[in-house]
Amino acid sequence: MPTPATTASHAHIVETLGRRIVGGELPPGTGLTLAGLEESFTASRTVVREAVRVLEAHGLLTSRRRVGLVVRPQAEWDILNADIIEWSLDSPRRRDVLIELTDLRVAVEPVAARLAAERAGDAERDELVRWATLLSDLGNQGLGDSDEYLDADIAYHRLLLKASGNALFEKLGDPIAEILRGRSVRGLTPGMPRVGTLEAHLATAQAIRDGRGADAEASAREHLTLVSVEVEEV
Question: How far apart are CA 151 and CA 129, in angstroms?
Answer without folding.
Answer: 15
